[in-house]
Design a protein that fits this description.
The protein has 382 residues and is an alpha+beta fold. It folds into two domains: 3-28 and 286-380, no CATH class; 51-206, C8orf32 fold (Roll). 51% of the residues lie in helices and 9% in strands. The chain is built from 14 helices and six strands. It has helices at residues 51-54, 69-75, 84-95, 116-122, 126-139, 203-216, 220-233, 238-250, 254-267, 269-293, 297-309, 316-343, 347-359, 365-380; strands at residues 3-6, 18-21, 144-151, 160-166, 173-175, 191-197. The strands form two sheets. A four-stranded antiparallel β-sheet has the order 5-4-3-6, covered by helices on one side. A hairpin with an 8-residue loop joins β3 and β4 (160-166). The protein is rod-shaped.
C-alpha cells in the first residue's frame, strides 16, 4: 500500500503535515491442488523421483489415443464382420488382467502419464488402461463413453476412469474395465459416478495428469498449459478450473485466477465455494487499493468493509491489517474534509471533521496531537 500524506496550511496558522501510512495486506491464494477430489492434499515436489520423472521425453501435447502398429496389430485379430458385442468381448479377453495379451497394471504416481501406445508397451494405472481401451473402441466405432467414478472401497481422494460401451439391445452401458475378471464388471466393486464423458472428452484426464505431473515438479507454466489443454477437451471440469486458479494466483495473475476460481465454484459449489470467496476478496482488495491510491476514501472504505463481510477465511494478520486500514481511510477522509472546511472558513465543520478523525482510531499519537492542535485553532475562529 502507498503512503498518503494530508497537508494544508490554515490561514493565519502554522499547520504540520499529517502522515498516514496504510498497512500492507496480501492477496488470498490457495496452495491446495485438487487430485480428482476437492479435499486432496497439496502436491509436493519430489527430490528423487527417478530418471523417468526428471527429464521426460514424452509430449504433453500428444494425442493420447493415437494408434501405432502394435495397436493396429491387435485390431487385425478382430473380425470386422462380427457384432460389436463379440468384438468388445474379444478385445477384453485379450487385454484384461487375465487375458492372452494382458496389459500390465502399475502405479502411475509421480511419473508422466502414458498414451495408449505407451500403456500397451509398459502397462499403466486405471486412467492409462482406460485410455488404451478407448483408443481401440474408437477405432472400432463401438458406441460408448467413459465414467470417472469413486469406488466406495477407495480412499476419499481417489477417483478412477472406466470405459463403457452400449452394445446391448436396450442400449444399456456395459463396463469395459481391464482390471476386472469379466466384461461388464469392475475391478473394485460398487462406485459413485462423478463424470460421464464421451470418448473424445475423456482426453481431459490425460492432460489433467500432465498438469499434476508438471505441478509436482515445479513447472508452473507447463502445468498451466496442460490444464488449459484439458479444458479444451472438457470445459465443465471443476477440479481443473480450481487447479488453474491456484497456479495463476501463484504466478500473480489474479485476473485469470479469478476467472477459474469463479468457474470452479459455479460448477461445484459444495466443494469450491471458498474459490469464489477468495476471488471476491482479491477483487475487492484491488478496488480498495485503486481507490486509496486516488484518495477516494469513501470507496476505499466500502471495498475494505466488503472484504471483511465477504465470508473469506482471512488470516489474523490480514484481518488486522484491513481493520487498521479502514480506520486510516476514515481518518484520511475526515482530514480532507477538515482541510476543505478550512479553505472555506467553515470553522464548525472543521472542528467536527477533525474530531471524527481523532475518534476514528486511524491516527498515530503524533498525528492525533497535531489534529487536536488544529481543531483548537479552528475553535478559536468560530
Amino acid at each position: 500500500m502507498n503512503r498518503h500524506t494530508n497537508s494544508r496550511i490554515m490561514r493565519g496558522c502554522k499547520a504540520a503535515a499529517l502522515g498516514l501510512t496504510l498497512t500492507a495486506f496480501s492477496p488470498m491464494t490457495d496452495s491446495c491442488m485438487a487430485e480428482r477430489t476437492a479435499y486432496a492434499e497439496p502436491l509436493r515436489p519430489q527430490e528423487n523421483a527417478g530418471a523417468e520423472n526428471a527429464q521426460s521425453t514424452r509430449s504433453p501435447s500428444a494425442n493420447p489415443f493415437q494408434l501405432n502398429q502394435a495397436l493396429r496389430d491387435i485390431l487385425t485379430e478382430i473380425n470386422p464382420d462380427a457384432s460389436n458385442r463379440d468384438n468388445v468381448q474379444k478385445l477384453f479377453d485379450m487385454l484384461h488382467s487375465g487375458g492372452s495379451r494382458a496389459v500390465a497394471i502399475n502405479d502411475g504416481e509421480g511419473r508422466p502419464p502414458r498414451t495408449a501406445t505407451e500403456t500397451l508397451e509398459s502397462g499403466g494405472d486405471c486412467t492409462e488402461l482406460a485410455t488404451l481401451t478407448v483408443a481401440l473402441l474408437k477405432e472400432l466405432n463401438v458406441p460408448g463413453g467413459v465414467l470417472v467414478v469413486h469406488f466406495n472401497s477407495a480412499p476419499a481422494n481417489v477417483y478412477h476412469m472406466i470405459p463403457y460401451v452400449r452394445i446391448g439391445t436396450g442400449n444399456e452401458r456395459t463396463i469395459v474395465d481391464l482390471q476386472a475378471g469379466t466384461l461388464g464388471s469392475t475391478g473394485s466393486g460398487t462406485y459413485t459416478q462423478y463424470l460421464d464423458l464421451t470418448y473424445d472428452q475423456s482426453a481431459v484426464m490425460y492432460y489433467e495428469e500432465w498438469g499434476k505431473y508438471f505441478t509436482l515438479h515445479n513447472q508452473r507454466s507447463e502445468a498451466i498449459s496442460a490444464y488449459e489443454r484439458a479444458l479444451e477437451c472438457y470445459e465443465p471440469y471443476a477440479d481443473v478450473h480450481h487447479n488453474l486458479g491456484v497456479l495463476y494466483a501463484d504466478a500473480g495473475d489474479m485476473t485469470h485466477a479469478g476467472t477459474h476460481n469463479r468457474r470452479a465454484a459455479e460448477l461445484a459449489p459444495d466443494r469450491y465455494s471458498q474459490d469464489q470467496a477468495r476471488t471476491d476478496y482479491n477483487d475487492e482488495m484491488e478496488r480498495a487499493n485503486q481507490a486509496i491510491t486516488e484518495r477516494r476514501w469513501e470507496e476505499g472504505i466500502r471495498h475494505l468493509q466488503n472484504i471483511l463481510d465477504s465470508g473469506a477465511e482471512l488470516s489474523a494478520e490480514n484481518r488486522a491489517a484491513i481493520t487498521e486500514n479502514l480506520a486510516i481511510c476514515r481518518a484520511s477522509m475526515e482530514i480532507d474534509l477538515a482541510n476543505q472546511a478550512i479553505q472555506e472558513e467553515r470553522w464548525a465543520d472543521c472542528v467536527r471533521h477533525f474530531q471524527n478523525a481523532i475518534d476514528s482510531g486511524g491516527l498515530s499519537t503524533r498525528d492525533r496531537t497535531q489534529a487536536t492542535d488544529l481543531m483548537g485553532q479552528c475553535r478559536e475562529r468560530q
